[in-house]
Amino acid sequence: xxxxxxxxxxxxxxxxxxxxxxxxxxxxxxxxxxxxxxxxxxxxxxxxxxxxxxxxxxxxxxxxxxxxxxxxxxxxxxxxxxxxxxxxxxxxxxxxxxxxxxxxxxxxxxxxxxxxxxx
Length: 119
Description:
Distance between the termini: 40 Å
Structural class: mainly beta
Shape: globular
Low-confidence stretches: none
Mean pLDDT: 94
Strand content: over 45%
Number of strands: 11
Number of helices: 0
Radius of gyration: 13 Å
């Protein structure tokens, strides 16, 4: 089992920045991906970004590319999402997730952290 704990959400004005953190514990290894997803009211869950913990390769959804940056600290088993130039449409609950490289879906999820961007 892998446990994920997010932190760093909050209320910010449009154009502002926030940094989310996700700490993984339990049966972690270097051979997995960690990602960020978000769920806004009335919308389906949306993929935002992901990173390979071993190769440090990053991926982004078009909606956040150029504004969000995902990074990781392997020693701490922690992933970060730096969110800049935030827009009201970025308002959502942000979830951290993890999957083994060999898995096609994310099987481990955090509890979520609320991000609210005021216009």
